[in-house]
Amino acid sequence: MTLVLREVAKEYAGSRVLDGVGLEVGRGDFLCIVGASGSGKSTLLNLIAGLEPSSGGTIELDGAPVRGPGPERGLVFQSGALFPFLTVAGNVGFGLRLLPLAAEERRRRVEWYLSEVGLLPLADALPKELSGGQRQRVAIARALACEPSVLLLDEPFGALDVQTKEDMQVFLHQVWQDTGATVLMVTHDVEEAVLLGRRVIVLAPHPGRVAAELPVPLPARRELALKRTPEFLALRARVEDLVRGYAQSSV
């Protein structure tokens, strides 16, 4: 699986939000995108998800142009966007009804992914009975259950408290390792990007464009204690300086 963006641009009412964005994401990668306000992070993710068309350039997944939403791209928003009238199992299995799968395979996937996110005992619960972190786990399980080529995450932990957010970061990294999923994540949190990503892309604002790409040469196992190491702190500071510097230069 390869997701390739070439010279992608987006305009709204004559104002250019993204300009000449180029990216490549390979199978099993975990890419985090950061940038100041106005850099077009969420807009870029919407274009990749096919929720709106680009104004220029190309977006291809395995050589096929992206022209709209599709099951090969799973998307998780900050809010989780669960169906309140469906159970946890019903939410996770919702997208599977659109795929040519036997009923037994749908049940197997729902059970497996609920087990993977630690929520199998809550399969019959409604979203209102869950905590914020649990709802995001359901949203991630729902996206992964369709076994997409790439999982797109738009600030998935931005609305959570600090402790729950840290727990979810460790959880997400473990799920990524367990499933071998390809992940493209947008976040405003530089620390989160460095903790989770194998690579970090920095977007410069006004208009949004790729300003820097940094590899994250940290241990494969990402635990919270890693954030106190000199290597982590140095890389976080470097990314923060880049984000701040490009934001100031665009004013």
Flag low-confidence runs.
none
Can you tell me the CATH class of the largest domain?
Alpha Beta
CATH third-tier fold name of the largest domain: Rossmann fold
Please identify which CATH superfamily of the largest domain we are dealing with: P-loop containing nucleotide triphosphate hydrolases
CATH architectural group of the largest domain: 3-Layer(aba) Sandwich
* Count of domains: 2
Q: Indicate the percent of residues in helices.
A: 25-40%
**Strand and helix order:** EEEHEEEHHHEHEHEEH
Question: Helices and strands: which structural class?
Answer: alpha/beta
Strand content of the residues, in percent? 25-35%
C-alpha end-to-end distance: 38 Å
Mean pLDDT across the residues is 92
Order of strands in the sheet with most strands: 6-7-8-3-9-10
Give the CA-based shape.
Answer: globular
Please tally the β strands and state the result.
10
Rg, rounded, reads 18 Å
> How many DSSP H or I helices?
7
Q: Main β-sheet: number of strands, strand sense, barrel status?
A: 6 strands, mixed
GO molecular function: ATP binding
Pfam families: ABC_tran (PF00005)
Protein name: ABC transporter ATP-binding protein
Domain ABC transporter: 3-230
